[in-house]
Amino acid sequence: MKDPHMTERVLTIALAGNPNSGKTTIFNTLTGTRQKVGNWPGVTVEKKEGLIEYRGQTLKIVDLPGTYSLTPFSIEEIVARNFILDDHPDVVIDIIDASNLERSLYLATQLRELDCKVVFALNMMDVATARGAKIDVAKLSELLDVPVVQTVGNRQKGIDDLLAAAVDLAHSNKPVPQKRKVRYNPEVEKAIEALQQDLAAQLRGILPYHPRWTAIKLIENDTIVQERVAAVAGEKGAAVFETARRQREHLADRFNDEPEIITTDERYGFISGIVKEVLTTSIRQRIDISRNIDLVLTNRIVGLPIFFFFIWAMFQLTFTLGAYPQDWIEAGFGLLASAMGYLLPEGLLKELVLDGIIQGVGTVAVFLPNILILFFCIALFEDTGYMARAAFLMDKIMHLVGLHGKSFIPMLMGFGCNVPAIMATRTLESQTDRILTILITPFMSCSAKLPVYIILAGAFFGAKAGTVIFIIYLTGIVFSIATGRLFRSTLFRGADAPFVMELPPYRVPMFKSLMIHMWDRSKIFIKRMGGVILIGSMVVWALASFPRPAEIHERHAAEAARIEARFEERAAGADIPRPELEAQRDTALSELDRRTQAEQAEQSLLGRLGHGMAPFFAPIGVDWRGGIALLSGFVAKEIVVSTLGVLYAVSDDESTDQALQHALRASGMTGLSAMAMMVFVLLYLPCVATVAAIRRETGSVRWMLFSVVYSTGMAWLMAFTVYQGGRIVGLG
Amino acid sequence: MSVRLSEVKQGHSAVIERVGGSGALRRRILEMGMLKGVRVHVEKYAPLKDPIELIVRGMHVSLRVEEAAEIIVDDIQ
Asked: A502 at the B interface (CB within 8 A)?
């Protein structure tokens, strides 16, 4: 049987609603795992959409950013409004939080003013009922002339009815009802009318949007609508803008306030009329579990300690629980390496696969479990509603840096790994906050830098190593605060986003939704970082492996042959037990390998680069070997240690660390130059995965380059100050 | 007697008389339903004395102290 509604066309259904209205839950219920996550064009606001089949018809569900309003004050609101205006979705479903009717209706009335078909999903009726509220659904539908469907998003109730209502409305020929919209007071209506007539007279046929709506927006001084109208109107726009200006002045004079404030006030007036008719609240004491939970969680005395405990627990979980699968992945890569080593013939390809690809990707892939766990915890914080409390608790401190309380979590995560930390800035609403947080997060010393400090501090500061490392971490924190303040007062001046933030009721998270959130973000890590890391490690490998002076390798072969020959000769003599001779031979061979590697590394492009950049590193007390190691750290910071190991030709076993420390001390480095190098490692150029994350999350190559140049420049300056300053006061 | 919302003590409530400030902040405050004549309850101050948690129209909203100082209120209870 064929459905009468069946058409070939894909219907676009947009989901609009306030933050915390349960919009995401409904979206997840509708689309399940068939989601595509990307960005809205040109901005870093997350765009989610999913295709589903319904009654033999394909529906494209687009999740608009959660907003309280459609005024163009935040990037989210602009994105949501432009989608409705320019992409003309067939239907907009507005998710109304029944337990917060008045505020939800504010967005709803704005949607009704736009020229689009709207269905209301009256969500979270269960919460409203528990709070003693009763809503007359039929009345609400009648008063706003909009189909209303009751839903309980997290129990899948009403979802099918909602889709049916949306599809029916999309197919109906009924025009968008013009009545039952907000009526403003006579003065405002007169102004709208006058402007509307002007618009009709001057711009008939070319006006991009509904004339009444355009008139209201011009009276509200809406810059985006002004631009659009100016773009189509050309010369004829002048008269319209003049009328708008006069009407605005008239209204401002008449009401002694800005016209956009008057319209906001009037909308709420209109809404309270509706609410009075549809909502009855019983007198009994409302059950407000959230409020009771907050008596503890945002308590004056225990609130912060509990918060720090949660954060501590998150880190514990991430790094201790994550350590197990980390070992497995490491073992897996080890197995892969030995299998490839066995399968591939000696030569360049084998070196590329083993030392380039497997080594490079392996060092990053081991972070995957940590990232999964970390994102799971973050999703838990977000979905329960605790994230808003974290921001509430930390805002005072973060505000000192010119940031929002929510920036605390990404910055803290920076101590673990900068990649998920930078990705976690997606939880911030303001674009400026997001970019600023991204720029200062790399100064939070990530866990991959720790091995470098351990080697250097261990070699030169002995028992005081712990204190020195602590000072390094502290330097990073102070530096990021200073940078935040500097940028806030220069690059991002006056752009501090208002803190007005809802503390939504606590909710029991849905497992499925947690999984989807976790996976969405981790997928980005796997896909993008995988690609970039792969290329990056191949490039560094190539730099370290070419050119290959034949002379070195010939000498290596000759030497190896000599060792083998000597072994055979002595084994034939048989006055020493064979195993002992074999051991001696192996030691000699591996020492030869190390010497050759060190020679190769020195002669390679990377080595020449290191030598070439010696004048750059010399003033900060780092020699060419340190320079090469630092350059190689671009792939991943841990590599700094292994590169130093190669360059100092220390043995490749358990005691590497001690051997390397010994070699470093013998190389002429001092405590002061070690300190300078650690400061440099702390602040300089983030690793390739982080740089890629910065590029992705700021959506701009320029910010990425800025971050790279700023961090490296500052690292050099700071290291220079430490080294030269130390020498002046006689520490060197 | 009119005072700033930031001067209202925890546990008290007051009626909004005027929302000052400008631009995005003012608009945002108004859009959250904090309009003239609406009663707001000061639920609590954050442990570090900033921001403030308010209850407006049954919704919990937090504002920074400097932002709350832009809101003039009356009729404290």
From this structure: yes
